């Protein structure tokens, strides 16, 4: 048995992707152990995913089932393309990626980069969304099979699998690249701009799509679908249809396009993975600027919060305000609000306007956008901004212990967190209202737009105070701002949904008022909305503060990552 | 005040996680003005006990008093008298050292000018002033311990509860921390700290408790617990476990 010590360094068995998959399943299983509610939430999330998947399956299989092969290519190209786009952008904007297997944990193991990337990739494929996607997109196989028989069905199946691999690879590569950009202080502003551009792309795309549908010009749409079918966005999905429609030569080419793209994405991912593994501990080079001429209290308070009193409330606000900027995870959220808050209303209001590319009058703004539609989009922006606080204590993690030890009263805590977040959000909301009003050419609407924003934002603060106190969950202590624990993904989604629905319900009176009150609302909207929002926020903090006072240690335990 | 109540009293503190007992009923009296060492092997329940004693973790049973104030029934009074440095808990580390001190000071309701003055002194003494505006997240492990200690000391608590204050600290910083703590006790304060470094405990403490498997195994003044042996001998005897390897691990030596 006595083997020399320097001999057994050579691995006897090769590490393969199988090990990573099993490791991920084991970690997921252990996360569930002894936590019944987590299992329940996971099941609920899976059922919702299944429900959507079945719906999408029949949608995609519809051309085949209806026997109308005119739409087969259209649906495959557009639905597939949107799917890839969604996997590309949604993790950045809303959901984050499941980082059950944190790359940094593998830094010390003797694994080649190739082994690591393929392993992590395989592990990433094991998740509820991918299974649901696979089920949904199998609808394409049905369509291809009905039109082209077995050979087309087989090609379509290969295409769907390839497409799914492409989606996952794209999501991983993009989030990983953005994470390493946001980590470095030098280029993080560039990352913000890139994200903004990416989100902005959605706008013109939607407008073009609506215009095309309104024209009902099927030839043009089919042409567009053919083009998309030759890009990585649509290649995998349309291969089966090509086969069925007799373009046999196209199928292998399209699969090749997809395969090359997947490999390229994986190489890109492995690049940024390296920086995630090495630079995980530090958040960038230390800025040692010894300037201690002023006192430490003056240092704590950012200039924007300089008017605050130097007391407990002031300290809490100042610390939170600093954190919203310095913590990459929180900053990513702020950027999201700014980008989505600006572009979604533009899309909604211009899109609903019959704004077409070949319209005779060109760009006209006095269209069909109404106070109700504008109010609805403002409602969305307000609740989107506030829902960022749904896990506000989770951002702190175990550092929240400092506030528990100091015995900060619950109401003070919640008031301060609302105030600090509002330092960033209120200016943003003002910009949103002004820009949208000017784009629509209705400056008189600014008043009730701001009022609606304030009302929903205030209502959202109140709702999310409760959600954050009762439904907090821990975030992993990694440097990837998009990372979250497995299981937390479902929890996060459901809590966010509940918080948004509740906020919307409380904010709806503003929309109703816009519909009923007519011109009077132009003047009443601002004061009433502001009062409504401030009142809701204060009431929420008053009630949730009591709950918080009784649950300090429990909340700390919920947000402390398990090790 | 010192004559009336012990600095810290624990009665029947118990906690289990997922059915696994971490602390099984701990009773402890820490006399005011003592330098109290809580010894125990890894996983003995030291951190759990101290967390329950200072209000960070709700016990399944039992209670804790700080200078006569119930930590769980009257947390506001008790927490004012307490300074805590938890272990394995992050600081608000996206702040610089100075900002962190200012935050803790104001959070304790201190006067801003006093915060400025004390923070400057603490940063100076702990050799953290050179770090300037470096964020605490970029500090070394030893510097993090020191800034954590400074945060716990800033408001001048009557009782200081420190979890593993000497872990990951270099000898120079350790000597500095020892000196600060000794001055604090000489000035009438009480220190409770956990450790598994016998040498430090033997040098500093007036009282010792040995915790193993969630219960107190030995308690008393250092002399009472130690007798005429070394503290390490007593500790190993109480805790049990093997201290030497046998036939296994033969592959370690060729």
From TrEMBL, chain A:
<feature type="transmembrane region" description="Helical">
    <location>
        <begin position="494"/>
        <end position="516"/>
    </location>
</feature>
<protein>
    <submittedName>
        <fullName>ABC-2 type transport system permease protein</fullName>
    </submittedName>
</protein>
<feature type="transmembrane region" description="Helical">
    <location>
        <begin position="446"/>
        <end position="473"/>
    </location>
</feature>
<feature type="transmembrane region" description="Helical">
    <location>
        <begin position="249"/>
        <end position="269"/>
    </location>
</feature>
<feature type="transmembrane region" description="Helical">
    <location>
        <begin position="116"/>
        <end position="141"/>
    </location>
</feature>
<feature type="transmembrane region" description="Helical">
    <location>
        <begin position="71"/>
        <end position="95"/>
    </location>
</feature>
<feature type="transmembrane region" description="Helical">
    <location>
        <begin position="190"/>
        <end position="213"/>
    </location>
</feature>
<keyword id="KW-1133">Transmembrane helix</keyword>
<keyword id="KW-0812">Transmembrane</keyword>
<feature type="transmembrane region" description="Helical">
    <location>
        <begin position="332"/>
        <end position="352"/>
    </location>
</feature>
<feature type="transmembrane region" description="Helical">
    <location>
        <begin position="372"/>
        <end position="390"/>
    </location>
</feature>
<feature type="transmembrane region" description="Helical">
    <location>
        <begin position="147"/>
        <end position="169"/>
    </location>
</feature>
<feature type="transmembrane region" description="Helical">
    <location>
        <begin position="39"/>
        <end position="65"/>
    </location>
</feature>
<feature type="transmembrane region" description="Helical">
    <location>
        <begin position="522"/>
        <end position="544"/>
    </location>
</feature>
<keyword id="KW-0472">Membrane</keyword>
<feature type="transmembrane region" description="Helical">
    <location>
        <begin position="421"/>
        <end position="440"/>
    </location>
</feature>
Automatic annotation (TrEMBL), chain B:
<feature type="domain" description="ABC transporter">
    <location>
        <begin position="8"/>
        <end position="238"/>
    </location>
</feature>
<protein>
    <submittedName>
        <fullName>ABC-2 type transport system ATP-binding protein</fullName>
    </submittedName>
</protein>
<keyword id="KW-0067">ATP-binding</keyword>
<keyword id="KW-0813">Transport</keyword>
<dbReference type="GO" id="GO:0016887">
    <property type="term" value="F:ATP hydrolysis activity"/>
</dbReference>
<keyword id="KW-0547">Nucleotide-binding</keyword>
<dbReference type="Pfam" id="PF00005">
    <property type="entry name" value="ABC_tran"/>
</dbReference>
<dbReference type="GO" id="GO:0046677">
    <property type="term" value="P:response to antibiotic"/>
</dbReference>
<dbReference type="GO" id="GO:0005524">
    <property type="term" value="F:ATP binding"/>
</dbReference>
<dbReference type="InterPro" id="IPR003439">
    <property type="entry name" value="ABC_transporter-like_ATP-bd"/>
</dbReference>
<dbReference type="InterPro" id="IPR017871">
    <property type="entry name" value="ABC_transporter-like_CS"/>
</dbReference>
<dbReference type="InterPro" id="IPR003593">
    <property type="entry name" value="AAA+_ATPase"/>
</dbReference>
<dbReference type="InterPro" id="IPR050763">
    <property type="entry name" value="ABC_transporter_ATP-binding"/>
</dbReference>
<dbReference type="GO" id="GO:0005886">
    <property type="term" value="C:plasma membrane"/>
</dbReference>
<keyword id="KW-0046">Antibiotic resistance</keyword>
<dbReference type="InterPro" id="IPR027417">
    <property type="entry name" value="P-loop_NTPase"/>
</dbReference>
